[in-house]
Amino acid sequence: MTKILTGGVGKLEVAETVQKLALDGVDVAVSSDMDAAMKLRAGQADYYLGTCHTGAGASLGVLLGLMGSAACHTFGRSVPTEDEVSALIGAGKKVFGFGMDKIDTVAPVLARAIAAHDA
Fold first, then answer.
1. Over the stretch 10-48, which tens digit does the pLDDT of each residue have?
2. Fewer CB within 10 A of the terminal residue: the chain, N end or C end?
3. Domains of the chain by residue range
């Protein structure tokens, strides 16, 4: 089972969006950023999806500090393709940030790419 944690300003909306996809093997839970960092480092979670108003800073601030830039990527307000997300996951990224105005488009792309990668 792949565990995705959501955090930031739109954490509830992201969790709901991912849950509605009903992806096999994917579990999603709302988290604080500090708790998410600890769970990711301990292997109790696999990915983190963080949101803020711009997707450029606060969405990943704590995670970037505790996990390091090699594990983190922010899309800002852009919408990635599943192939782009797959490449980032393949490169070791586990923490993704994006703008809360893009939840309805970015969260499904991220969740589907994660599910496909971890299937």
1. 999 999 999 999 999 999 999 999 999 999 999 999 999
2. N
3. 33-117
